[in-house]
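Provenance and format

Records in this collection were gathered into a single text stream. Each protein contributes a sequence line and a token line. The two records reproduced below are adjacent in the stream.
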Amino acid sequence: MRYIKDLTELDRCDLNLAGGKASKLGSLLGAGIPVPGGFVVTTEAYRAFESENGLWVKIDALVYGTIPSGPAELDSVSEAIRSLFSGGKLSAHLVAQISEAYGRLGASPAVAVRSSATAEDLPDMSFAGQQDTFLNVVGHEALLDAVVRCWSSLWTARAIGYRQRNGIAHNDVALAVVVQEMIQSEASGVMFTANPVSENRAQVAIEATLGLGEALVSGMVEPDTYTVEGGIISGKSLGAKALAIRSRSEGGTQTAAEDNAGLQALPDSAILELARFGRKIEQVFGESQDIEWAWANGDLSIVQSRPITTLYPPLRGNEEGRFLSLFSLGAIQGMLDPFTPLGIDFFKEMIGRFAPLFGFRGTLDGQRGLYEAGMRIFLNFTPLLRSKGGRAFMRLYSKAVDPGSAEIARMLLRDPRLAIRKPGMKLRTALGFAWIGKSIAFGVLRNLASPSAGRKRIGLFIDGLVARIVAKHEAVGNLAQRIAVVEEVIRSLPPIFYKRLIPCVASGQVPFQLLLRFFSKVPRGPETVMELTRGLPFNVTTEMDLALWAVSRVIKNDRAAETHFGKADAASLAKNYLDGSLPPAAQEAIKVFMERYGMRGIGEIDMGRSRWKEAPASLLQSLKSYLAMDGGDKAPDAVFRGSGRAAASARLELLAMTRALPGGRLKVHRIDGMIKRTRELAGLRETPKFCAVKVLGAQRDGLLASGRDLRSAGILESPGDIFFLHIAELKAIASGEKGEWKALVARRKESYDREKKRRRIPRVLLSDGTAFYGGIGAANTDAPGVLCGNPVSAGVAEGTVRVVFEPHATVLLPGEILVCPGTDPAWTPLFLAAAGLVMEVGGVMTHGSIVAREYGIPAVVGVHEATVRLKTGQRVRVDGGSGTVTLLPPP
């Protein structure tokens, strides 16, 4: 068995044989990048050593026998395993091969011995610093000892813990060992081909110190920092570099204090050459890289390259390289999860159908209103930021929807790349806006003239629209026909939006905004106007939550149903409902609810996500929470009625304020008219989303029928896999084209699952990769123990925090404070049990804020990293009037 490979024999395909570090070094050598010569002791040697010394059975017992978690346990297990390695014996065959390869490097040369694990330097997990490196190893015996110690470093406490946290099975990894000529560095450091802080991919960030790079990567020194952009050095800061690690002649290293504060570690010419190497390495691997380098005798060497795993994935679809400013649809909608490919196509196609109205390209691939990054949707607001009218719209809209994004937008307006362009918009674009504006205005005026007739009109239209879509899908029988129906429906949506749905939102907002403006300078005026939105009638989301509460009362009043719900978990209850075996009272009540709301679900704006009627576990989890709540004055329906009474009191107070103003008695009737129309129409804010979700649900049902056909034909593994293909791919399947469709879907589902674990999603993303995550609470912490955000629902609540990422897996106890990244309407059933609400995204007009006000729940949104800074079990005070969350001492 040959256990040794020269680095020149390797490339990135040799991950399992040579590990991440060595396989990438081989690729760099093949691309002409200067890499110190050397060889790798392959993973087969590690496996052989492990087998010959009977280590795995003992390791398995130590790692899986206790499942170490705490630092002390991990240290103890690590120490025991590493002692097994130090007591093991290398085979004569392996010793001979290592000695021969070492001899080819020279007469006992100094070498660097580095670990190269099969699970490291991966696109989403770097494993940086998890295994050991040994520098300036001199001599045959020292090398053999370093190889064994490298192997044993696969079992450091930090490596064991890292694998456990990331779900990597211990027996799935092995370690190769890289042995390279030692570079006696005059300077060394790291280089990032994208700025690791701002994520700007146009910038190369370099850190440098004197001597060996271990002083830098271990955090012992303050390095120089250099920034290269556009081929020039755009930033430079010289660090103290007060320590330096250097090689000893007899082997090993030594650390000494030095006075290097004014000395630049790397000359400018070498900085620019290094940046050029960085760009070439980036091209080799096709993604931004974290690179370790060394400089000696005027020459640069690359000793390691791995992906920068902390960057948000790059933007897709901007082949022209245009500068773009993109806002997260997820932050606007409160749904931060990734989208399925077909779900993204639906939005792209719909945007493409709007584009011709404004004189833009309207094809799926040609549209420029929507882009994808990290399997999430970002909206192109660049044209708005480059025009006066667009900036005015952004100031109004983004502040109401997500104040964090509005704050970022204000900062971006100083960027010269977003300067207002002259002349203004094209004639075709202006005419498009005028036409749509006229249609919206007509719809708004009709609704304001007769609110009751407007509500009835939109309700009948939505029911008719969905019925027609369902009928179209039922009338066809194959995939090609169903795709045609999907595209036909999408083509019909633009006029529906601007003639029917947008006026729903605007009808309530027009009188509401006029009231806010009228009372803006009246003491307590704006706050009292906000009180009008409590207990709003005709809100489909509120009606849904109260209907679910009514279902819980049916269950509560039926002994068999209540007993069954008390004993079973949500997953079992969901199975019972789907097979029709719940107690009759519960089965019937839930069935009636599903007939109206079963097309809703978590992440419902993505056509690829399951609906309550398919996967009702989250809904039944909410019912279990409701059953723990008492009725009476604190019951949700009673609280909602109380909110309505509070709004009625606010009306009387506003009318009294009006009479007290100069000439106010003449304005009372007009103000009362605006108040009444706000109450009658502002609840329609949720109707467009409700309509869109019903349309998506009907389209989903049709496509699932084809998914079942494709599963029967052996083309897909399951019906739901159809949503992991693009429209063009489905057309190819429909035409009979052969392909590795199952494998393609499997890869995409793997990427989707990986993206679903991502917790930091940019609010705003620039096309150069710059990502903005923080909201108004990122820097505005008034005092220790206080988190700041945006006040959206007045009141104060104290309670225990419950951090929730997946609502279907959570029983929210009555009186707990719900803390989450964001919410869509399918989250709102949890609100009935919550005492307060804290979200990372959102604004005064987003779904969660509206429903919180209607239920009278104190709510604060836009709290930066709330799900990280707050922990389940903490006690907090949520002040929805001031926008603060205060940490309280435990009881």
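Adjacent record:
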Amino acid sequence: MGRRLELIAVPDLSLDQKVVVLSGRSFQETAGLETFGIGSLKVIDGPFGARGADYSLSSPAAHFPCGPALGATFDPALLREVGAAIGAEIRLKGGDVLAGPNLNLHRTPLAGRNFECYSEDPYLTARIGVAYIQGAQSVGVAACAKHFVANDAEYRRHSVSCKVSERALRELYLVPFEAAVIEGGVWSIMAAYNGINGTLCSEHHELLTTILRDEWGFDGWCVSDWYGVQSTVASANAGVDSEMPGPVHWGAKLADAVVAGDVDEKVIDAKVENTIRIGVRVGRTDPSGAPVSSEHPAETPSDPDVFRDVARRAAAAAIVLLKNDGDLLPLRDDLARLAVIGPNANVARTQGSGSAHVRRHHCVTPLDAIRAALPSCDVTFERGRDNERETPIVEADVTIEFFAEDSHEVLAVEHVEEAHVVWNGQTPGGLTGQPFRARLSWSFTADRAGAYTFSLGTAGEATLKVDGSVVVTSTSTLAPDQSLFARDREQFTGTVELAAGAQHEVVVDYVSGRHRNLRSVIAGMRPPEDPGAFDRAVAAAAGADAAVVVVGTNMDWETEGFDRESFDLPGRQAELVRAVAAVNPRTVAVVVAGTAVDCEWSTDTPAALYAWFGGQEAGPALADVLFGRAEPAGRLPITIPRAIADAPSSPWWPPTGDTIEYGEDLLVGYRGHDASGVAPRFAFGHGGSYTTFAWGEPRRSGAAVEVDVTNTGTRHGSEVVLLFAGRSGDDATLPPKELKGFAKLDLAPGERATARLPVDARTFAHWDHDTRAWVETQGPQFVLLAASATDLRARLSID
């Protein structure tokens, strides 16, 4: 971590001044003490783009692929580029701290925030996370690794306790955070909402002090998750440095606790020192104590073209070739007629929902990207099936006018691209912190005649009118202290009969009422059912030279706030894939999702790609891979089971009561499949290529294992070599092998390169409860070189 910085003398501050520094002054800014040189810190949500101070109205930002997509690259060098790019845009937003990366693991395929997390494997997560942190902090922005720790589900997320063994905690869930601190030198850590074995993470002294600071040497800033502090004394004594967005439990209450003798003032001094230290690191605090300004620079719109290349390369590098029977891919670019089918084909499903949501610069749908790539081809489109969980959010040019509560004077006007607007403490027109009214308006043309369903979900009250007639009235369904992203709250709906071809005007009148820190409007519209959509899609496929079926999820299904209920592709999309493949033997299925979905349909289609939520460049990147202009360089960072019952966590999922039982212990993901012998649909590390590779014999070379890899095909391509530490014995509670290294090689046709995989003291170590240390595992030591968790290429003994 390096030497500790020389800072101003904390005791020069009064107790009241100290506690001011330790809480927020707004939703995203900490309080500073300008006359003492202590500036305010501004935290900007990531981790896939710099969202800005306002959830809906900040200027657009470069938008990068989701967590598992970045994990699928197996490319730390690329992640350093991504981290640096997002860090640079955080600065343009006037920010100092990037809320990311998310270093939690995919314990179950159904966790709501899996789309934020890199992998089911702690080693891969650590390598990707460290690179991201190094990239962000290289431009002077503090990365904030989150959520510390085992924040692997949205179920009762503010109160649930995770029952997890010490060994699993040490060998799985803490590993990425340990690497973030010791190798990445991360400047900030965010304490999780959940508890560990009965104690909330924000009150867990062993986690926040004994492990994080005393053992790992962390000297940075530990911030609560937003509204994550639920006590005064316990959280202060555990090791949290700042309550955000506070003060709720701190502030004057914290000063009173010191006076009462419940919290030692030296504890407060250490928190202030840590807060000052990060301020110095990001340039917001003067180490000499000279006065500074606590005002943050105004947000500056970023150039939409600056990071387009790295976003496109990342999206392409993440795409996984699941199968390619008969070398169907890449598709010829001289096709006369191509059918593009599916609910994720004509819509840009680039991200999940929640605090990671980014207002992107632009997006191109897969359909439009394919048409642009094949300008002379007759590209037909049919949706076939729907996949929405709720009434689809309106995507349109929405105008928002702002008014004081009792006035008709327009104080500000904004424009957004969808009718999903959240005001998290920031309101235009000088209305921040005050009751206000807003009017959202847009127009649309009815594609077909029938009953159109409109919906409203609000924190506040609203009415929705179509052509002047009230269709929906919404009373507030979100309590003032409820989660911002509780999308499963009640939705108010109404229907209206509309004629085809006519343009209609929609107006939503919103009143914030009693809500102050959180106000929101979500308006949706569902057109009448199209009974012929499925048959038209199958007919289009039957008459085409090839078919591309783009299926998956969207941010209704994958979001902060709740977990998925089903592993299935929603909306009978599997039936659509099978029907298209039955009439066209040149069918390519493409999954656009943020995590694992059931791929049982893959046995019926010759080719399949996993394209993830790919960020703003997802459409062009997919077209690049489909037509061979880029390599499908991704490898699965997760296991896709044949059925949800095969997932190792399934006996303990969904959780009930106040506890999440981590009953599979060490056997998460591929570890559990290895131990049980239950084969997955697609294994961890799985992924094909448009070329072929030959591996040589592995060899020891000092403190590493090496293997030569040759591109024996006719195209440039990427190969990933995985190194697993093997375990001898028949103890069914222990994983037979664990990932301990990987190397990605980019090779031209005929080129050979050497994959070098270090083997160190931790490769064959396990956590010992009695000594509270890492100890060498006894027995024969060997490594397995593999292309995936089920594609083992060589075994090498380690003396």
